[in-house]
Description:
It is a single chain. The protein has 346 residues and is α+β, with helices and mostly antiparallel strands. It has two domains: 28-161, Super Roll (Bactericidal permeability-increasing protein, domain 1), CATH 3.15.10.20; 190-339, 2-Layer Sandwich (Alpha-D-Glucose-1,6-Bisphosphate, Chain A, domain 4), CATH 3.30.530.20. Helix content is 28%, strand content 34%. It has seven helices and 13 strands. The protein has helices at 33-44, 129-161, 190-200, 204-208, 227-235, 237-244, 320-339, and strands at residues 28-31, 48-50, 54-73, 76-93, 100-110, 120-124, 214-223, 249-250, 257-260, 265-273, 277-284, 293-302, 305-316. The strands form two sheets. A seven-stranded antiparallel β-sheet has the order 7-13-12-11-10-9-8, covered by helices on one side. α1 (33-44) crosses α2 (129-161) and α5 (227-235) packs across α6 (237-244). The relative contact order is 0.11.
Amino acid sequence: MARKGEGDARWIVEERPDSTNVNNWHWTERNATPFSKERMNVLFKQLAHDNDEGSWKVKEVKTLDGDSTISNRKGKLIYLYEWKIVLEYSGTLAGSTTEHTGTIECSNLSDENDANELDILVRSKSDAKNSDALKAIVRKTGVPMFRDKCVEYMKDLRTEFSKGMILPTKDGINMNAQTTANSKNNKKSAIQTSFEINDRLIPPHEKTNRNVKSVVVEVKEKFKVDVSEIYNTLILQERVSAFTRSPCEVDSRVGGSFSIMGGNITGKFLKLVENKKIVQEWKMKEWDEGITSHVTIDLTPTDSGCSLSLKQTGVPDTDMSRTKEGWTRYYFGPIKQIFGFGSQMY
């Protein structure tokens, strides 16, 4: 324990009126189970489909067994959840009024699996031919819809229920991942806020000496989706805005500029080879004047989807770890989570 007057200012408690979790350095936890049950009840009851072959809908959410919690440690939100879900459906085949019923079941919706990794079973309550025919329709149309609703639930858990978990600091700086007075709509993403939090925690001497040495950052990722989907996700404004959860400006052409995460990252496109290569000039807002890095992303099709190889040159050595972690945590992790393109990173 440090002597009085010598401790890290980030740990000071008495200067906060509420003396609670100063600068978010203490562990806090919130029970998200009631919210999760209520939200999933609403989402899964929306499942329905009608086409020339027949129609069906979810009659009842029969089982929602599990729990969910969100924890805040040092300004980082950690999501833990695990659910077993059973839905009851009913429907009819085209040209028939006979109703058939069955269930849609999933036992592994958790923070360890993304939507593409969920085990989803469709069972009919009868072995009759028409019942099996309707089950085939539900399996074909309902399983993708079920995955989409799971993605929506996971997104709501992160963007709605977690509001207010990151508290203002003792200096009155609002570290809440959802709020800032500087953005257009008075809101910013958790990703954008996290970049700003990290910047405030960097010692001043490291900020002023960032141009001492530059290093190379390399990251490799695999995605379970066609290479074109990843290429478009990285250059199209609406998709970038979706996975960064914040407004952005992206002019996806050679020479076009981009500004994302509330202007914390800016740059321009130097080279674009459709579905193969993206080369960018790339800069963090707090880097010293004149410091700009170059990012080269190579995309390669694989049997299971595609692989991504990223090489970033010109990164200040004091920012190497944060930059490398940023690509995984704030780019590729959310891309897999939001769009369901691969293994979850959280």
